[in-house]
Amino acid sequence: MHIELLPSDTLEKDGKRYVKGLRLSDKVRIDYGTARHISFIVKGDETEHSVMYFAEKFEDKQWQCDCKWYALQNKICSHIIAVNLALKNKKVKT
Question: Are 18 and 3 in contact, with CB atoms under 8 Å apart?
Fold first, then answer.
């Protein structure tokens, strides 16, 4: 499956989340995938979070996370940034 990564300026928009995402990018692994979506696990300091990529959804809903921050803010979180950086830097392969 082709994964459309987020643009660099979107990832770097909030420096604080970007820095945390950069740190977490070493702790990303694939959970499972289908023809339409793929699930990643991001291991944080205390918890693990699931980040999902949906190939068939619109741009603003392709990337989703189960963390509280994403649910409340509906914005890209550090876990989504971590997965994008891990894929971009080939730390995890699909």
Answer: no
